[in-house]
Design brief:
With 416 residues, this protein is α+β, with helices and mostly antiparallel strands. The protein has 3 domains: 4-105, Arc Repressor Mutant, subunit A (Orthogonal Bundle); 115-146, no CATH class; 156-411, BirA Bifunctional Protein, domain 2. Helices cover 34% and strands 20% of the residues. It has helices at 8-16, 19-30, 35-41, 45-54, 75-84, 91-99, 124-129, 156-170, 184-187, 219-231, 245-248, 258-267, 311-324, 366-369, 385-393, 406-411; strands at 4-6, 32-34, 58-60, 64-67, 103-105, 118-119, 136-137, 174-175, 181-183, 251-253, 275-284, 296-305, 330-334, 340-350, 354-364, 378-384. The strands form 5 sheets. It has a 7-stranded mixed beta sheet with strand order 8-11-12-16-15-14-13, sandwiched between helices. The chain has a 3-stranded antiparallel beta sheet with strand order 2-4-3. It has a two-stranded antiparallel sheet with strand order 1-5.
Length: 416
């Protein structure tokens, strides 16, 4: 395809010769001419004079022009002829001819560039221009392999969490949040967990090294909780007989979202009851990592506060919760927690793993609710949302929920 074409001036010079060629042709006959006579003998005389002097073909005294040498060839003249024939020309000569405006670049449209090429798409531009008649279309091979596309999507585990969150909100629950680095007071003491309880040991709670302690903001609340631990306060309980105030001030990585429940109950007013709250957030527990356990995981905490609530109501809420994530089988086992009475553990059935513990629940003891200012029954549960997500996602290893396996992340189907 041609890149350049002659301008009108270039065509004239191609036919009649460049001005410098015409000047040396005239001087070649007489060897010299008076300046004024030469001036009238050649069109574009000063252009001719410039190039002949530059190429050292002619000598000028100001009154007379004398031919020094007659060129065997004139490269620019030859270049014009080659461009006219669509032949290759030295780039330096092309630049000179462009500067002299004897040639110009040919503007080629993107559609014109397709002429003679094999293309795959029939575009509106090809149809409108008629170029579809000139191009060659590649045959479509239905058996050809193509690159697989992985569109952006929510993480499968995130989809499960968002679905549970939406359904709990639809059931009238209000979502709450709490700090990951928590006072031991809220993580354990406000929940009537004794200071010497095994769960306070290094194997069950991560202790923060620096800073070690938090601040006591509500001294009356802390006094009520302390009195309850030591001798039961006004709850009717005998308490645990002692309370470690310094241990309560220690900062820990939250081991249970029940700490958020305690914070929520301490802020409830009589006008806020009945009340339903939930939190889905991360907790931390030193553990041996395997298919069912990890050192950090998400827990779904829930409380229902109201008059007349019973253990049967609690089991009803838990069954409803199990149905949210698609569990068909669920059963309960009596258990013990320092902060609930009655207490139970919920188990759900996994096809590959069998019955798996999903979380604990119960009715909060008066030793928990009364110091926090609540005098009506409170149903509470803390469920390992990761294990329920395993059931929903059809996986048998909890580590897949935080896996960096790109094949699994890309190919895992969307949660329905």
């Amino acid at each position: 395809m041609k890149r350049y074409e002659l301008t009108e001036e270039g065509k004239d010079y191609l036919k009649n010769g460049l001005p410098e060629k015409r000047l040396v042709d005239i001087l070649g006959k007489s060897k010299s001419l008076p300046f004024d006579e030469a001036k009238t003998s050649v069109d574009n005389f000063y252009i001719a004079l410039q190039w002949t002097l530059k190429n050292n073909w002619v000598k000028s005294t100001g009154k007379e022009l004398t031919l020094i040498t007659y060129p065997n060839e004139i490269p620019q003249q030859n270049a014009l002829e080659k461009i006219d024939r669509d032949e290759e020309v030295d780039e330096n000569l092309v630049d000179i001819l462009l500067q002299r405006k004897l040639i110009k670049k040919i503007v080629v449209s993107e559609a014109d560039k397709l002429v003679g090429q094999e293309i795959t798409n029939l575009t509106p531009q090809l149809l409108k221009s008629g170029l579809w008649k000139k191009v060659k279309f590649k045959k479509y091979d239905v058996n050809a392999s193509v690159a697989k596309i992985y569109p952006g999507k929510l993480h499968a585990y995130r989809q499960v969490i968002e679905e549970i969150r939406e359904k709990l909100i639809g059931l009238g629950f209000v979502e709450a949040k709490g700090p990951l680095v928590e006072l031991n007071f809220w993580n354990a003491d406000a929940l009537f967990m004794p200071s010497d309880h095994p769960a306070r040991g290094i194997h069950d709670i991560y202790m923060v090294k620096e800073p070690k302690e938090g601040k006591v903001l509500d001294k009356d609340l802390w006094r009520r909780v302390g009195d309850t631990h030591e001798k039961g306060w006004i709850t009717g309980s005998k308490g645990w007989g002692s309370w470690d105030f310094e241990l309560a001030k220690r900062l820990v990585l939250r081991s249970q979202t029940t700490a958020v429940s305690a914070r929520t109950l301490s802020k409830l007013k009589s006008g806020d009851i009945p009340h339903k709250m939930f939190v889905i957030d991360r907790v931390f527990r030193p553990d041996v990592i395997d298919a069912k356990h990890f050192i950090e995981f998400d827990q779904c905490e829930g409380i229902v506060v109201g008059e007349g609530l019973t253990f049967r109501h609690l089991l009803g809420y838990l069954k409803e919760f199990a149905q949210i994530i698609g569990a068909e089988q669920v059963r309960f086992k009596p258990s013990y927690f320092p902060f609930t009475e009655f207490s139970t553990e919920m188990y759900v059935y996994f096809k590959d793993l069998g019955w798996v513990e999903a979380g604990g629940s119960g009715i909060l003891r008066p030793e928990v609710t009364m110091p926090l200012g609540v005098e009506v029954p409170v149903l509470a549960w803390g469920i390992g949302i990761g294990r329920l997500a395993m059931l929903k996602l059809g996986i048998n290893d909890i580590r897949y929920l935080i896996s960096d396996n790109l094949d699994w992340l890309r190919n895992k189907e969307m949660v329905k």
